[in-house]
Write a structure and sequence with these properties.
4-stranded mixed sheet, 11 helices, 9 strands, 45% helix
Length: 308
């Protein structure tokens, strides 16, 4: 078993090397990797105390007949007979408030399948994502983003900072655009078809079913990497390949999931970015939250600037 697991890891490493060496390569054969060994490893990584989805199956119950369950699952997957189930929507207290926030709970098998797909997607997209993307990535976290920002500020060339927050990002991801973005790297039809099935699986709340016409799966293991792919093409590459090239002074975008800051030396660059980023995001059915998005003049006493 150990030898087989090493083979799985070796295959993923080979995919990563191919992705890194050929940035425009489209992968046509990926889904065969969704086998017993990959899913067995993913099952071990699932939380034992996680809430059950609409089928009420827990990790402990599924694990009682693990090999039989996984074998059946793999057969269904490769016969294209597997159908993701709706996510169960529950509400939990919102910290620091008397309000409740919605939480999505997928069924265990959906978590398992998504976890396997994430491992494959990460092998490819970890080679593509920009260095200053920090959210939901292996070995990265919020403190890494903050450290990068602090180091950038300490260079002494930052006079203006744009702070931005995307309004309801995970609920507003456009499915058509996401599938187009995925198509730049993935030409495996089975992989793409299952991603689309997860996107449209829907939500179940108090016995009522809601269709998912936009957004990423609530509570889905796959949602973070899909979000990063969406913003990689929708925001990150646009900044690095187009907007940054037109700046009169140094500029740097640092993103953590759907929150990002951009540092500037020149006021004109900061104000132009503030104007253009709204137009850019609108192309992909997104918008910034005005109350959380502002231009800050760096250094005491400091001030909040707004474009005319």
């Amino acid at each position: 078993m150990l030898r087989r697991e090493e083979n799985v890891n070796t295959t993923l490493q080979r995919i990563a090397l191919k992705a890194r060496s050929e940035p425009k390569f489209q992968f046509t054969s990926l889904f065969h990797l969704m086998d017993l060994e990959l899913l067995r490893g993913c099952f071990a990584g699932l939380r034992t105390d996680a809430a059950a989805g609409i089928d009420r199956v827990t990790k402990q119950e599924y694990g009682q007949n693990l090999e039989e369950n996984l074998t059946t699952l793999v057969n269904h997957l490769h016969q294209m007979a597997y159908r993701p189930q709706p996510v169960k929507r529950v509400y939990i207290p919102k910290p620091g408030s008397d309000k409740l926030r919605p939480l999505g709970v997928p069924v265990l098998e959906d978590k398992l399948v998504q976890a396997g797909m994430v491992r494959i997607l990460e092998a490819i997209y970890e080679q593509d994502f920009i260095g200053d993307s920090y959210g939901f990535r292996p070995g990265r976290g919020c403190h890494h983003a903050l450290r990068t920002l602090n180091l950038e500020v300490h260079k002494g060339m930052v006079n203006y900072v744009v702070e931005a927050d995307i309004r309801g990002f995970f609920d507003n991801v456009n499915h058509d655009w996401l599938m187009k973005f995925l198509g730049h790297r993935i030409a495996d039809k089975r992989m793409l078809r299952y991603i689309k099935r997860f996107l449209i699986a829907g939500v179940m709340e108090e016995g009522r079913y809601w269709v998912s016409e936009k957004g990423t799966p609530q509570g889905g293991v796959i949602s973070p990497i899909l979000a990063n792919i969406y913003l990689h093409y929708g925001l990150d590459l646009w900044f690095e390949r187009r907007f940054w090239q037109s700046c009169m002074g140094p500029a740097r975008l640092i993103r953590y999931a759907d929150d990002f800051v951009v540092t500037f030396q020149k006021k004109e660059d900061a104000m132009e970015f503030y104007r253009e980023v709204e137009e850019r995001l609108a192309l992909f059915s997104l918008s910034v939250a005005p109350e959380k998005t502002k231009v800050l003049e760096f250094g005491p006493p400091g001030s909040v600037l707004r474009p005319n």
